[in-house]
Structure formats: C-alpha cells, structure tokens
Amino acid sequence: MAVQNTPLSSNWLFKKASEPDTAFLPVAQFPTNIHLDLLHHRQIPDPFLDANEAVVQWVGEEDWIYQTSFSAPAAVGQTQLVFEGLDTYATVFLNGAEILKTDNMFIPYRVNITSRLQGTNTLQIRFDSTWLIGKQMEEDAKDKPLFCHNGDSSRLQVRKAQYHYGWDWGPTLLTCGPWRPIYLETFTARFSALSLESVIDQSLSIATVDITAQVEGTAVKTIKLSLIDPEGKPVEKTVSLNDGAVQAMFTVSKPSLWYPLGNGSQPLYTVEATGFSDSGVVVCTSSKRIGLRRVELIQRPIKDQPGTSFFFQINGVPIFCRGADWIPADNFLPRISSERYRAWVEFAAKGNHNMIRIWGGGVFEDPSFYEACDELGLMIWHDFMLGCGSYPVTPAFLAQIQNEVITNLERLNHHPSIVLWCGNNEDHMFADKYPSGYDVDDKNPENWLKTRWPARIIYDKVLPELCAKYSPSIPYHPGSPWGGKPSNDPTVGDIHSWSVWMKALEMYPYQYYPKLSGRFVSEFGLKSYPALRTLTGCITDPTERHPQSRTMDAHGKSASKTPWAGDFRNIALYMFENIRHGYTLPQYVYASQLVQAEGMSFAYVFWRRLWRGEGQEECAGALCWQLNDCWPCVSWALGDYYLRPKLAYYTVKRAMTALAVGVARAEIETGRQSDLTRVHVQKETRLQVWVSSFITSSSVVHVLLEAFDVVSGRCIWDSRQMGVTVAANKSSEILDILFPTSLESQPKTVVAARMIDPSTGATVARYMDWPQPLRHLTIPKPAINVKVDGNEVRVSAALPVKGLQLSVDGDTAAEDTVDWADNCLDLIPGDEQVIVAKGLAGRKVNILHLGVAAD
What we know:
Layout: E1 4-7, E2 13-16, E3 25-26, H1 34-40, E4 64-71, E5 78-83, E6 90-94, E7 97-102, E8 109-112, E9 120-127, H2 130-140, E10 165-167, E11 170-172, E12 182-187, E13 189-200, E14 206-217, E15 222-228, E16 234-240, E17 245-253, E18 269-276, E19 282-290, E20 295-298, E21 311-314, E22 317-319, E23 321-326, H3 338-350, E24 355-358, H4 367-376, E25 379-383, H5 395-412, E26 418-422, H6 427-433, H7 445-448, H8 456-470, E27 476-477, E28 495-496, E29 521-523, H9 532-538, H10 550-554, H11 557-561, H12 567-578, H13 585-608, E30 621-624, H14 647-655, E31 659-670, E32 682-693, E33 699-709, E34 715-726, E35 731-738, H15 741-744, E36 749-756, E37 763-769, E38 784-789, E39 792-797, E40 801-808, H16 812-816, E41 819-820, E42 825-827, E43 833-838, E44 845-848
Parallel strand pairs: 23-24, 23-30, 24-25, 25-26, 26-27, 28-29
Antiparallel strand pairs: 1-12, 2-3, 2-4, 4-9, 5-8, 5-12, 6-7, 6-9, 10-11, 13-14, 14-17, 15-16, 15-18, 18-19, 20-21, 21-22, 31-32, 32-35, 33-34, 33-36, 36-37, 38-39, 39-43, 40-42, 40-44, 41-43
C-alpha cells in the first residue's frame, strides 16, 4: 500500500488545564495557539490593540489542554502520529495513556501508535507554562549565572522562539499550542530521509548530485531515484535497497545554474525517490526541488586596506548582497499563510533585495518561505535560533541543540537560496561587552567551559562540526557579528553598525553612515512610525493618537523595555536634527519616515560605493534592520505588520538598482598653518561623482549633472559626462573636481545626477545631493504638477522638491490596493518622473513633501 496521510485538523477543543471538561471550547483554526483561540472566543482582548498586551500576560502562566477525537485508519501497516511542531512543553496522551513529552518548539516528533489505536481515539495534549518552567530551570541553575540582553533571561533555558519573551520591537506574548500540522501517517514502508549534496566544478560545466534515500519498513525492495531538469526531462537510476538505504550519483553536463536575483535565472531541478515492492507496486514516494549552484564565502586581503574581504561568490560571480533582516511576520505564527510568506518575499524582491537574513531569535521558517526564496532568487543568510545571551551548556541542553540543528539541516540543506549558516545573533558581541571571560585567542574548548560564556563551545565547535557533516556545501560563520578582535571589527567578517541610532553607542548623525561601513554590514537602522492607517487601526481611542501618548509608548517597545534605546527620544532627536516638522500624528508619521528614508539612502548609496571590484571589496553587503514587523508598532522595519511599505522602502529600492549614480560634496582642509590654529585654515569643497553596476557586463551611459537653487529653481551649473563606461559589477569614480565657485556662494543648492541611456534618452538612475542637514533649508511650496493616466502618475515641479509622498483617498482596503512602483521622490525642474501605480485606476492622488509637512 502507498503511504496514507490523514490530517488531524478537525474537532479540536481547548481549555485551561485547571478547568473541568465542560469548559472545552472549539479552536479558532488549526494549526493554532492559545492566544488565537482565546481571542476568537473573546476571552482576551486583542493584544495588538491599544495597551492590551499588559492585560493578557496571565495566559503565559497557565497550563492548557488541547483535545480531539479521530477514527483509526482502515489501511493496514504501521501508523505513526506526527507532530510538525508543538510549542513547547507538551505531554501527549492517546486514549488516556501518555505517549510523548516534548521540550523543543523547533523540531517535529513521531510516535508509533499502531498497537494503541482503537475504533475511536482521543488525543489530548497538555501544554505546561513555558514561563514557569523556564523560571524554575533558571532558579535551579542560579550558581551559573548567564547574561541576557532583550527578553527575560529565563528564555535562555528554553528551546522556544526567543522573541516570544519580548524584544526591543515586539511584545511579550508567551503563547503555546499545536503550531504546526498534526497528522497520521500509515504505511508499510516510507522514506524517512531524502538527502542530497551537489558539487559544481570550477568550469561550471559539470555538476554532480549525490542522492541518498533512507527507508523505514520492509515492503520496499528497489528504489528508483530520478533527477528531473527544469524542462521536465528525467534521468533515472534504479537501485536495490541495502540495509534500509540507497545512494546514487548523478552527473549533469552543462547544468542550468541557480543565480541570485539580478544575476541570472532560478532554474529548479526535482529529485524524486520511488519505492517499489517485490511485485513492482509503488509503496512510497518522496521529492524535493533543488537548485544547482556553487557558494563560496571569500575572505582574503584587500588592496591598501586592513583586514580581509567578506563577500559571497555564486557560481564564480562576486555578489554585493543587499537586503534586510527577517523576523517572524507575526507573534502568532499559525496565522501566517503561505500566501503571506510569498507576499513578503515578493515585497523584498520588488525592492531590489537579493538577500534576507533570518534572524536568530525567531524560528526555522515555514517551507513556503524557503520555496519563495528559491523561486525568486533571494539568498538566505540563516542564523541558528540563538541570540543575545549566554546559553547553558548542560548535557541535556547540548543534546537538544544537536538534535534541533541536525533535524533542520536535513530539512533545509537542499534549498539553493540558503548560502550561509550562522551560529547566533550577537552572542559574541555581548560576550565582548559583558565580563564573560571570552578570549578569542584561546582555542581550548575545555577553557571555554570555565568562563561565564561556556556557550562558545556551541558556536565554535558543535555547530561547525554539524554543518560540515550535514551541510558541507554551505559556508558556516560563527556568529553575527563576528570576525576580529573585537567581534564587531569593521575590517574582518560582518558588523552590526549601530553607532547611528543607539544611545548606548555614539548616536552619530545618519550623515556619518559613509564612515561607518564594514566589510559586510548585517545590521543597521533607524526607527520610524508605521503607516498612519496602521496606527489608527491599533490605537482605538482617538485621544491617544498622538506621538506622546501612553498607548503609543506601548507600541514602541524599546521605549518601555530598554530606556537606553529610547524609541521616541531617538526619533524626536533625529527628526529635530534634520528637518522642520509639525506635531500632528500625520505630520509626525511622515517626518519620521522621511528621516528613516534619508538615513537608509545614505547608508546603501555610500556603502555600495565601496564595492570597487576584484581585490577592493571594501564593503560587500548591506542588510538593514529590519524588513518586517511581527505586530503593529514603531520600529526599524521597511514595511509594517500589514505589509505597508514605509518611505525608506523606496529609497533603498532606488539605491539598489542594477545601475546607479552617486554624488557627494567632500570638504577637505588644506594649507593649515599650524596645528593650534582654528582660523588660519584653508578649506575646499570637492564634487565627487561615481557610477555603480551590479551587472556582469560593462555599460556605456551619459551622466548629466545639474545644480539648482532651492528657492528660485534656477539651474546655476551643469555638466555633461558623455560616453561614461560603467564597469561591470563594481563602483567607479568618474569625477572629482573643485566645487564650482558659482555654487560655493549658494548654500541652498541641490546637485542632481542623472544616468541616461544613450540609445533611448531615458533616465535609468537618479541621485540628488541636498545640503545637510535639511533643517537649515527654508523650502518654498512649489506648484507640483500631478497627472494621472490610468495606473500611471506623472509628476514634475518648477522648484526642487524633497521627499514627495504619493497616496490616495479611500478606506483602508482601497489604500492597500495601490502598489506604488516608486515613492518618496526628489524632483528637480525639467525632469518629469513617471510612476506606475497598479490598482490606481485613475483615482485622485494626494501629495505631501518636506516643507508642506511642517505646516
């Protein structure tokens, strides 16, 4: 017989463990968790609204029971009960008998229940309070204190999504429940594993794919292994079973290679295993989709620079990684649909991202997330689920980690999108910060165990050994950040660049981003408010809808959890330092988003400039914190909980186009007469222009430079650079001249650069250098021409315009139907911009920009 799967997704009930059976209520959905079910029955207020998070904390300190009944499958063979995910401390009973205890949210569990089945069966799962168990474990280990940053320190004892304990962007909602599917699997034989490793030779002309299949059960005698190319053409090998396993090597000539978005296509092969009985009947099948690609992490000396490079090379092509960090898209994971996962990955792809970093305080994600990344070409930097703390290293905890990592390496290793396994998020960094005894030069694991950071053995020994065995073709990196001495050394490995924003650090202006690069910047960011309609949706009291309300504080977590980060203090400071703004909520939302957009643009544009070609990869990646939100809040995200893009989404998108142009004014001191003088110093301003390409072939373009007076709109200088060669896959300086004297007396001057396609005359890239800080400018209110033609909007102005936001009238549903291809625009006279807005359908377009937003 073939494998038969029977979903157990109906007739589920739940109740508090201390209540009688008469208290059982039907679940809201399945899979589920306790908050979703209580919310469905109005037994708790929505914790995403107002300050309701505080009043639902009791849920996490109760024990809960889930129960269903089902009929035994009629088919013959062994029946296993499969739990894809139980959160977290669960005791499972079948017909009153205990059959399983769990303690890890990140792994599936299987139980053979063949001999326990009755005609009608009762399945009950008791979930004990993670909070109470974790606190008791912490108390029992108080003689070995552990440092923890973000969330309650008891989280370190528990293999549960760490963000459930609260973070500086998310609420504390300690949920529990059957968060992934549960089903019966009945079989006479099944594939218990289907694993593969692919190797691409240096010439990229030959790929070898090593496929291994393992079988549970005795009914299978032979197995057909198939490798099916992207066009559907199979290559097959039939192998006799040997001690429950088979292995076969496939050689592919001229393979169709998988490339990241922007560097090629994403062809996918299919690996299939089919098990046959003695009589040739199909007994079981299994399949996976794979991509053939060679991944290398290149760390080598850089010309005329300290340290080493840190860049990814896919199929021999050096890649500048651009994108953002990913957190779980909801505090209540069961309600994230496959369509929602796909929409988030598409959101990143449309924003010109080519990499997503799965952050180490979340979860190993749903299959649909990885599949979308495979199909759309988004590379994944994948943290293991450890972050911001010193984890215990008891034998039981290490065994959990080992099981968790092996399980997920075997589950995910085949995805071509995964290009890095990373040991943790910021654990090395906090080991540097706290008195942990961490000595990077000490290579003796026995000594590590004697320090206050014994968890180093996980990142420097356990994980690299497991990755080498179970995922040898994907590089391993011990942590993020990690590289030199200290771990956040900008010349080695990756860094988290928080000197802009964090009060605990320097809290530099965002104009300092060009000086704050590293070989690979895997975190940086500025916070802003979400869309106005997101705030009005989660704050129900109109009198609380202002920046200084108590309810607003509840939706800005670092303000309430970690005062050193100070959401609202920092936002207000960065706005005050940079722009003139009003204080109504709509004005504040716009102003905070504009400042975030400007800061992110500075970082991406100037760090991309440091991608200078072979041997000069001074910066090879920029991943901002963060792509998304898990609830409606004030955060660093480029898109809020409802997938509504902030203004920064668009400035980052423009900064990461395939071809780009950049402009900077550099003030240089010359002729200093004495080190003591502050007067007799000569200064000169230089105008620097560069072009950038992510394309693997060179291009020829024209570059038009123009300078405009902000007040009059008069063009006071221009220059045309004709026939400029944009070198392949690098940034190239094309102009470095003294700032024209006609501009030096014009402090209110915008210098604009446009890259022009010589064959069509079309503008392929723009960049505008405004005087900084913007608060010094008195910006007039120009007449902006807006013409709507179906799903196109044409905008132009007679004066320079900063941060033009386009929006439409209508209710929430109507607003969310418009997909703006671009937004947050800078305009100059004579340069009409055409914006595609799918779903606009000729509706009236509203505008807001710097200057107007301060009224």
